[in-house]
Design goal:
It is a single chain. It contains 13 helices and twelve strands. It is α/β, with parallel strands linked by helices and 420 residues long. Helix 10 packs parallel to helix 11. It starts with a helix and ends in a 16-residue tail after the last helix. The N terminus is likely disordered.
Length: 420
């Protein structure tokens, strides 16, 4: 990232966060100057949530209409709907884990869609490799230098894009956002770190550090001063003072706090186009639990956090899509320690007002031995890149598929159809 450009650009995309009454006056001048738009001229935002560790998709989105599911999981299966701790019925065959109850209303209003049996054509059971392949969107290829979300930004080629066009609520820049396009990684709005990308050094000391590196003869004068005002304003933004709209209540968890602050950035109109958040702990090899226990607790926080975000944004969800993902699923059979091991096929959630929800998309092969991948895992019938591509093209309005997904032929005719 060009340091001079970053200093100039970073001062123009910030607007009042609503809960601060003394925003620098110059911020308002540029409140709407750097909006990012799709082909229809409306700014679109994609929020991705990575469930690291491989969530058990068969217990998150339960195939309660498949009898083999209960044979394979005698102690950890989720009961059928209308039974004690039973699944939340979706369509007579699939159901949500009861801990995902907060998402039920979005299914009923057709804002929530699910793609099941989705995953990678690569069969690796390595967390590290599978996450790398999903975030680079090049399964089986370790030499890819950038992430798929960064390539979306690169292919847009916006010379005047906001430096806050891509924000990760993480301590380290995620693989998905690595690349040439400027990105920001922060753990919170009050004390954030700027990362210029994987192949350049992280900026030390924030904006002040950049400014000090610039030759005195190349001083930015008033622009530099305004930049520091903007950064100080952002640092002083206190998430604890933020009042969520529409009665939304975020859980006091890492994911809940991340999504709350993403909502703040969206409402601040800083030019955000792509946001990234993550949650961990999904590697449930033992004592996974069924309707209650380890997985249930994780899903409860997951569901409450996403529901709070969508509720908080309200009508702004017209232009927002939330996409969840995990590197792979887990074995169809429970193991000897009442858990599940590394698997293959999984599920993804897609939430937004423009989503054709209330439907589980994808081909379901079944859970019998001859229907499983390698006789043990849910088979993959939808390549995860097809899901990514449908969102890139139909939501973000970016159909540069050859640049975003190198080595993969995208045919929109084969999209699952969950986007309007």
């Amino acid at each position: 990232m060009d340091r001079r450009y970053f200093l100039k650009a970073s001062g123009i995309g910030l607007a009042s966060f609503g809960f601060m009454t003394a925003a620098p006056s110059f911020l308002h001048q540029f409140a709407n100057a750097q909006t990012l738009t799709n082909k229809n001229g409306k700014r679109k935002i994609l929020i991705t949530i990575f469930q690291r560790g491989a969530v058990d998709g068969l217990n998150a989105v339960v195939p309660h209409g498949e009898s083999e599911y209960y044979n394979l999981r005698p102690t950890i299966a989720i009961s059928k709907p209308n039974q004690t701790d039973g699944a939340i019925n979706l369509d007579g065959f699939f159901g949500l884990h009861p801990s995902l109850k907060p998402l039920e209303k979005f299914w009923q209003s057709k804002q929530l869609a699910i793609v099941h049996s989705v995953g990678s054509p690569d069969n690796t059971r390595s967390h590290f490799d599978a996450q790398d392949y999903m975030e680079s969107a090049t399964p089986g290829v370790k030499s890819t230098r950038d992430g798929w979300l960064n390539r979306i930004l690169q292919s847009e080629n916006k010379k005047d894009a906001s430096p806050f066009q891509a924000v990760a609520m993480t301590g380290q820049l995620p693989r998905s956002l690595m690349g040439r396009a400027p990105t920001v990684a922060m753990t919170n709005l009050a004390d954030f770190a700027i990362n210029a990308g994987v192949y350049t050094n992280a900026v030390q000391g924030g904006f002040e550090g950049i400014y000090q590196q610039i030759n005195a003869k190349d001083s930015l004068g008033e622009t530099g001063k305004e930049t520091f005002e903007a950064v100080n304003f952002l640092k002083k933004a206190n998430p604890a003072q933020y009042k969520a709209a529409n009665g939304a209540q975020y859980p006091n968890s890492a994911l809940g706090r991340s999504l709350l602050q993403i909502a703040q950035l969206i409402k601040a109109n800083v030019g955000l186009e792509v946001a990234f958040a993550e949650s961990g702990g999904w590697d449930t090899h033992s004592n996974e639990g069924g309707a209650r226990g380890q997985l249930a607790n994780l899903l409860r926080d997951f569901g409450q956090s996403i529901a709070a975000l969508a509720t908080d944004l309200g009508a702004q969800m017209d232009d927002v899509v939330i996409l969840t993902m995990s590197e792979f699923g887990r074995t169809a059979r429970q193991n000897g320690t009442n858990g599940t091991d590394h698997g293959h096929g999984n599920q993804m959630l897609i939430l937004g007002n423009a989503v054709k929800g209330g439907k589980v998309y994808g081909e379901w092969k079944g859970l019998k031995d001859d229907q499983l991948n390698e006789g043990r895992d849910l088979a993959v019938t939808t390549d995860f890149r097809s899901v990514f591509a449908e969102i890139a093209g139909r939501h973000l309005g970016n159909a540069s598929y050859d640049k975003i997904f190198p080595g993969y032929t995208v045919n929109p005719k084969n999209f699952r159809g969950f986007m309007s």
